[in-house]
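Notebook entry, structure prediction.
Reason for the run: the old model in the group folder had no record of what sequence produced it. Starting over properly, with the input documented here first.
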Amino acid sequence: MESATSKKLRMLIADDDPQILSMLSVRFSKLGYEVVEAADGVQALAKARASKPDIVLLDVMMPGKNGWEVARELRLNHGTKEIGILILTAIGTIVNEMTSPLYGADDYCDKPFEFAELDRKITAILEKRRVQQQQG
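New structure, fully documented this time:
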């Protein structure tokens, strides 16, 4: 039985590629996350508002709204502004490096990615958000 201090972390994964969505969902479920899935940007926003995840993994190129638009809307909404955001995309390192922070993402990870790098970035984002919540 879980105690209140060992609450399962909730992760929203938004990607329009069903294979990537499934792969990430299975992996992070096995690592103990409660995973919520979204296949496009509109679903991602709705599910983020409803489920209040601890972290969101956002593909950039999705139908409806792209990942950067979703990130910006999450940051502008009082109920979702504290969610950790990691952008996942094959759009290119230079574009990611310049653009992701402008929309409020905590970090980005280029596709194809290594799971070790993805894990490091997720851990860093969650830790940063935890410290911010304790301070504020």
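Summary: Residues 115-135 form the longest helix (21 residues).
The old model has been moved to the deprecated folder.
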